[in-house]
Design goal:
binds adenosine-5'-triphosphate; single chain; 223 residues; alpha/beta
Length: 223
């Protein structure tokens, strides 16, 4: 949704969706589309993670996971592929990605990092996690079967208490620093289930874009 001339602020709003995208699926795409609308974002950058520090290395090489993202977002003018993590060696830390984005985009752009509720419960184990909210807003998205519980660790409860924002204006009024929880109509799709389908010779059709499935078949991925 484009901003109207009557909007109070003209701050550019950039959403960030990092992930292993092994493979990208309609759960990711719907989440990004709904948040782009709800938060009136100018663009959403899909940032494939080259070497995830918090989970097992993906089987699929980063260049192929990235190629699948490119196919999946083709034709959506708000969606952009950002390959900066593929260009760095070593663990792909979000803090480094954010520092790079700030250098490229400047301090005025609002950066809005999307995070599934499943990822947020572990956020306080991320490298230099306390600096992350200084560089971007966080938007926490509840995924099916992964409700955020009251058993969040104390450091994360404090983060929520101190930075909590409940309206979109709070995100446009500054470039970083707020934490919002958004409920979306999340699709119960995971890359794990898609890989299981493919390994078991079941069809994952309609869970991910046809072009991505075609790429998977051509490259014989997830056998
Ligand atoms: P896997 O099953 O391999 O763990 P995944 O489907 O969770 O993969 P990721 O690439 O790890 O996909 O996810 C990237 C981001 O997208 C994470 O923040 C994750 O919480 C979120 N996400 C993934 N699937 C969905 C979905 N169906 N709805 C909303 N958010 C999702």
């Amino acid at each position: 949704m484009a901003k109207s001339a009557a909007d109070v602020t003209s701050r550019r709003m950039v959403g960030l969706l990092g992930g292993t995208f092994d493979p990208i699926h309609h759960g990711h795409l719907r989440m990004a589309e709904q948040l782009a609308d709800a938060l009136r974002l100018d663009e959403v950058r899909f940032i494939p993670c080259a070497n995830p520090p918090h989970r097992q290395a993906p089987q699929t090489p980063a260049v192929e996971r990235s190629a699948m993202v490119r196919l999946a977002i083709a034709g959506n003018p708000r969606f952009v592929l950002d390959e900066r993590e593929l260009q760095r060696a070593g663990a792909s830390y979000t803090i480094d990605t954010l520092l790079g984005l700030r250098t490229e985009l400047g301090d005025e752009v609002a950066l809005v990092l999307f995070m599934g509720s499943d990822a947020f419960v572990e956020f306080d184990s991320w490298h230099r996690w306390q600096e992350i909210p200084e560089l971007c807003h966080l938007v926490l998205v509840e995924r099916p079967n992964a409700q955020m519980t009251e058993s969040l660790r104390p450091a994360l409860q404090s983060l929520l208490r101190e930075r909590y924002a409940d309206d979109t204006e709070a995100l446009t009024s500054c470039a970083a620093g707020r934490v919002m929880i958004r409920r979306i109509h999340a699709l119960d799709i995971s890359a794990t289930a898609i890989r299981d389908d493919l390994r078991s010779k079941r069809s994952p059709r309609y869970l991910l874009p046809d072009a991505v499935l075609e790429f998977i078949r051509q490259r014989k991925l997830y056998l």
